C-alpha cells in the first residue's frame, strides 16, 4: 500500500479500536489481493488470536489469520465482495470452528485500492454496529465541516487533503481549489521560515501551536492561531490534522493597542510640552522630561507634591477654579503663570483632561505649553498697537477701548478734538522734522499741564489730539477747553527756535450728541472745523448756531448709513441708441435714493457726502452688483445690451476694486464685454497709476468710457495713452447745439477727435429731433437722452424694449 493510502487511515484508527465488536481493516488491491492491515482487541479476542501475532500486510496472512477454509481461496468473497455481506466459515486460533456473518464496509477507494472495514457478528449486532459507526462518522463529519474554526488535513509533504467549509470561505477558494495546494501557498511569505519550523516539529510527533499571517486568494492578509496535531498510526506520522482560528480582529486590536501605547508614550515622554498626570487632589503622579526642564525640578522632587504652590499668587484662585472644573469630567483650557526654580515667571497655556479608567476618574492629565515668549511679544505688540509711535501717547485703538470702560464709570462724557492751526504751513516752511518735534512738544505740554484725573489724552492722527473727559456739568467742559487753549499762549522751543501755534477745538457731549464714539467724533470734528472757519484759536460745541451746513453733512452721512441697511437705494436705466441703426445697444445704470426721512434725494446732494465719508465704496459695489444681476436676467430673456456703470475716483483707487469687480462678474455669469465702466476725467490726474489700472481692466475684457468729456481735466495726452472705448459728450454741450455755434463746434471736434483715436462717442442729454439730426450728421455713434427714453425702472425698461421699434 502506498504512503498516500496509508495516510488516509488516520481518521478511522481511533474508531476501530473503540468498537466493542470484532472488526478489522482490509485493503484490496487491484481486485486480486486482500491485505490485512489491522484488527481491534475484540477481533483478536473473538478469534483467540494472540496480541503479538504478526499481522503484516500480506494476502496469505489475511486468510491465515482468519483460518478461512477454501479449496480456491482466490474466489473467496474477501476478494470478490459483490454483496458485502456473506457467511464465513472459520476457526479460532485454537482450532475451534466458527460460522459467522461477515460484513464488508468500503471506507475509501483510490487508484484501484479499496480500504474496507470487516465486521464479524450476527446480523442484529452488525446492524447495530453499523448504525453506531455511521453515527460516529456523521459526528466526525459534522465536527469537521460545521466547526466555526478552520479544520484541515495535510499529508506529510505539506499538501492539503481536506479542508472544511470555514477554511474554504476564509481563504476565498473552493474546496476543489484548496485540495492539492501546499500550505506555503496560503501563508504570508514573511512567515514561511517559521511555519516550516513548526511543521517539522509536527512530523517529529509533537503538537505545535503558532500564530501566523495568512494570505487568501485575493491577496488579503489575515492572522491565524494554528494548532497542528500529528495523526500517528503504528508509530508513524501518517497525516497532520489542524485547527486554525481567525484572530485577525484580535491582532488588529493588538496592533492598534500597541500603536496607541506608542503614541501615548510619544505624547508623554517625547512631547516638547510639559505633560503631567495629577491625582484628584492635584498632586504630581507622573511627569515627562519637558516638565522637569520647564520647572527646573527633578521628577523625584515633584512627585507627591501639590502643583498650586508653584502658581503665581495672583493666579492661584483662578487656576484652582479652572483646574477643579475637570472633576466634572470635562476637558478645560486656560492660561496661568508659575515660578520656576530660578523664581522666573513662566506663562503657560494649560489643557487638563480627566483620566477615566473603567468608567471611574482615576486622575487628571495636564499639558502645559510655555507661552512666555508669546506673552512678552503680546505686551510689546500691545504697546505698539495702543501707542502712537511718534508722541508715545495712547492712539485711536486705546481710545476706543477706554471709551467703553469710561461709559461704565461716567454718566456724561465730553469728546474734545484739538487741531493745531496752520500746522501744514509749519511743515511746508520748516520741514517735517520740525513738524514732528512740534507734535512731540505739544504732547508733552498737554500731558504736563492737564492734571484733571477725569481727562484722558490721545493722538488721533496728523496734528489732531483727542480728549475724553468725564463731567457732571457742561461748565466743567467749557473750563477744561479754556485751559487747553491757554497752553498755546507761550511758544514752543524747537531746535533753539521759537515756534508759535494756536489750536482749534471741537466738542461733542455724551449722551446729548450721540451714544457711540464714532458719532461723537464726527460731531466733534465738525465743530472743530467750524472753529477754524470762524477765526481759529477757540473752542466750539457741536450744535452751536451757525454750523448748520456742517451739521447737515453729518446728518446726511448718518442717513446714508441707515439707507444701506434699510435698502432705500434703487437703480433706474436710461437707454442708449445707436444712431445709424436706431437700435437700443445699451443702458446706463443710474442710482436713486428714496429716503424715508428726506424723500427723494438727488445724486448731486449725496454722492459727495458718500465719497467724503468712505461710504461710496460700499454703495458703488452695490450698484455694480445690482446692475450685473439685472443684466444677467436680460441676457436670459434674449436682450444683449451693454451696461454702463459710473465708477467714482475713490472706487477706482481702492486696492480691492478689481478683485471685487472680477468676483461679481463671475458670480453673475455675465460676459465682461457687456460691462462699460464710466470714469471721470479727473481720474487722469495720476496718469501712470491710471494707465496701469486701465490696462488691468482691459485684460479682464471690460470696456471704459470717459464720462462728461470736456468739462474736467484739460490735458488731452491721456486720450492717446489710455485704452478708452467711448467718449461721452457732456449734456451742457448738447444743450447748446440748436442755438450756440461754439457748442456745435465743440461737439463736432470731440466726435472727430474720438474717431481719429479709434474711439466711439455717446452724446448725453439729447432731447430734440434737431439735436439728434445734428449729432447723426456729425457722425456721433450713439445718443442717450429724453428724446429716446427717460431713466426707467427695470420693469418699465423691459416693457419699453418689448414695444420699441428702431427709427432713424
TrEMBL record:
Pfam families: EAL (PF00563), GGDEF (PF00990), PAS (PF00989), PAS_4 (PF08448)
Record-linked Gene3D superfamilies: 3.30.70.270, EAL domain, PAS domain
Domain GGDEF: start-end pairs: 411-544
Domain spans labelled EAL: 553-805
CDD domains for this protein: EAL, GGDEF, PAS
SMART domains membership: EAL, GGDEF, PAC, PAS
GO BP, one annotated term: regulation of DNA-templated transcription
Residue ranges of domain PAC in the record: 208-259
PAS domain residues: 136-206, 260-330
PANTHER family per record: BIOFILM ARCHITECTURE MAINTENANCE PROTEIN MBAA, DIGUANYLATE CYCLASE DGCP
Protein name as catalogued: PAS domain S-box-containing protein/diguanylate cyclase (GGDEF) domain-containing protein
Amino acid at each position: 500500500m502506498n504512503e498516500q493510502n496509508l495516510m488516509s487511515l488516520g481518521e478511522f484508527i481511533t474508531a476501530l479500536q473503540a468498537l466493542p465488536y470484532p472488526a478489522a481493516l482490509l485493503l484490496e488491491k487491484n481486485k486480486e489481493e486482500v491485505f490485512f492491515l489491522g484488527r481491534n482487541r475484540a477481533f483478536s479476542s473473538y478469534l483467540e488470536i494472540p496480541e503479538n501475532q504478526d499481522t503484516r500486510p500480506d494476502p496469505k496472512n489475511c486468510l491465515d489469520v482468519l483460518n478461512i477454509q477454501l479449496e480456491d481461496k482466490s474466489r473467496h468473497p474477501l476478494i470478490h465482495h459483490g454483496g458485502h455481506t456473506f457467511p464465513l466459515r472459520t476457526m479460532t486460533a485454537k482450532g475451534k470452528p466458527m460460522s459467522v456473518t461477515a460484513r464488508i464496509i468500503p471506507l475509501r477507494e483510490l487508484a484501484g485500492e479499496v480500504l474496507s472495514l470487516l465486521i464479524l457478528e450476527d446480523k442484529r449486532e452488525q446492524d447495530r454496529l453499523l448504525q453506531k459507526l455511521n453515527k460516529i462518522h456523521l459526528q466526525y463529519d459534522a465536527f469537521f465541516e460545521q466547526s466555526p474554526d478552520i479544520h484541515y488535513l495535510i499529508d506529510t509533504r505539506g499538501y492539503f487533503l481536506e479542508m472544511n467549509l470555514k477554511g474554504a470561505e476564509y481563504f476565498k477558494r473552493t474546496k476543489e481549489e484548496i485540495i492539492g495546494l501546499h500550505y506555503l501557498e496560503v501563508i504570508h511569505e514573511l512567515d514561511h521560515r517559521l511555519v516550516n519550523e513548526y511543521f517539522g516539529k509536527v512530523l517529529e510527533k509533537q503538537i505545535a501551536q503558532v500564530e501566523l499571517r495568512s494570505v487568501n486568494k485575493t491577496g488579503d492578509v489575515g492572522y491565524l492561531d494554528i494548532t497542528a496535531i500529528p495523526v500517528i498510526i503504528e508509530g508513524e506520522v501518517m497525516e497532520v490534522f489542524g485547527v486554525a482560528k481567525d484572530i485577525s480582529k484580535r491582532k488588529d486590536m493588538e496592533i492598534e493597542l500597541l500603536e496607541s501605547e506608542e503614541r501615548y508614550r510619544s505624547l508623554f515622554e517625547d512631547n516638547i510640552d510639559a505633560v503631567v498626570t495629577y491625582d484628584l487632589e492635584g498632586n504630581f503622579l507622573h511627569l515627562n522630561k519637558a516638565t522637569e526642564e520647564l520647572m527646573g525640578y527633578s521628577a523625584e522632587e515633584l512627585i507627591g507634591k501639590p502643583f498650586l504652590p508653584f502658581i503665581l499668587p495672583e493666579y492661584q484662585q483662578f487656576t484652582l477654579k479652572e483646574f477643579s472644573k475637570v472633576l466634572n469630567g470635562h476637558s478645560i483650557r486656560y492660561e496661568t503663570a508659575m515660578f520656576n526654580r530660578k523664581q522666573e515667571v513662566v506663562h503657560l497655556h494649560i489643557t487638563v483632561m480627566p483620566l477615566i479608567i473603567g468608567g471611574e476618574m482615576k486622575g487628571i492629565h495636564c499639558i502645559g505649553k510655555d507661552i512666555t515668549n508669546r506673552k512678552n511679544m503680546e505686551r510689546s505688540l500691545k504697546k505698539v498697537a495702543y501707542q502712537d509711535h511718534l508722541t508715545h501717547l495712547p492712539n485711536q485703538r486705546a481710545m476706543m477701548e477706554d471709551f467703553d470702560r469710561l461709559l461704565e464709570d461716567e454718566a456724561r462724557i465730553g469728546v474734545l478734538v484739538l487741531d493745531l492751526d496752520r500746522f501744514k504751513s509749519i511743515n511746508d516752511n520748516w520741514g517735517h522734522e520740525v513738524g514732528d518735534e512740534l507734535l512731540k512738544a505739544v504732547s508733552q505740554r498737554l500731558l504736563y499741564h492737564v492734571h484733571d484725573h477725569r481727562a484722558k489724552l490721545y493722538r488721533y492722527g496728523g496734528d489732531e489730539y483727542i480728549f475724553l473727559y468725564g463731567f457732571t456739568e457742561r461748565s466743567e467742559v467749557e473750563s477744561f477747553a479754556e485751559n487747553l487753549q491757554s497752553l498755546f499762549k507761550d511758544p514752543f522751543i524747537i531746535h533753539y527756535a521759537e515756534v508759535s501755534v494756536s489750536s482749534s477745538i471741537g466738542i461733542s457731549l455724551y449722551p446729548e450728541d450721540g451714544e457711540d464714539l464714532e458719532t461723537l467724533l464726527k460731531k466733534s470734528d465738525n465743530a472743530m472745523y467750524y472753529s477754524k472757519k470762524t477765526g481759529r484759536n477757540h473752542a466750539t460745541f457741536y450744535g452751536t448756531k451757525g454750523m448748520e451746513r456742517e451739521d447737515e453733512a453729518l446728518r446726511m452721512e448718518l442717513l446714508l448709513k441707515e439707507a444701506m441697511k434699510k435698502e432705500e437705494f434703487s437703480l433706474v436705466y436710461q437707454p442708449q441708441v445707436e444712431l445709424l441703426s436706431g437700435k437700443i445697444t445699451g443702458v446706463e445704470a443710474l442710482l436713486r435714493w428714496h429716503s424715508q426721512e428726506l424723500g427723494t434725494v438727488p445724486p448731486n446732494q449725496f454722492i459727495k457726502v458718500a465719497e467724503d465719508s468712505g461710504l461710496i465704496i460700499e454703495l458703488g459695489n452695490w450698484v455694480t452688483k445690482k446692475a450685473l444681476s439685472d443684466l444677467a436676467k436680460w441676457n436670459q430673456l434674449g436682450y444683449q445690451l451693454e451696461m454702463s456703470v459710473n465708477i467714482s475716483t475713490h472706487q477706482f483707487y481702492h486696492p480691492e476694486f478689481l478683485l471685487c469687480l472680477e468676483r461679481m462678474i463671475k458670480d453673475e455669469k455675465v460676459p465682461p464685454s457687456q460691462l462699460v465702466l464710466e470714469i471721470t476725467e479727473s481720474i487722469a490726474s495720476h496718469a501712470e497709476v491710471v494707465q496701469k489700472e486701465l490696462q488691468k481692466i482691459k485684460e479682464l475684457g471690460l470696456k471704459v468710457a470717459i464720462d462728461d468729456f470736456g468739462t474736467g481735466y484739460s490735458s488731452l495726452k491721456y486720450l492717446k495713452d489710455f485704452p478708452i472705448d467711448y467718449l461721452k459728450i457732456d449734456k451742457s454741450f448738447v444743450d447748446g447745439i440748436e442755438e450756440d455755434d461754439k457748442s456745435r463746434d465743440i461737439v463736432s471736434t470731440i466726435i472727430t477727435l474720438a474717431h481719429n483715436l479709434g474711439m466711439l462717442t455717446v452724446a448725453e442729454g439729447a432731447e430734440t429731433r434737431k439735436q439728434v439730426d445734428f449729432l447723426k450728421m456729425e457722425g456721433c455713434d450713439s445718443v442717450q437722452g429724453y428724446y429716446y427714453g427717460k431713466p426707467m425702472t427695470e420693469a418699465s425698461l423691459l416693457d419699453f424694449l418689448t414695444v420699441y421699434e428702431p427709427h432713424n
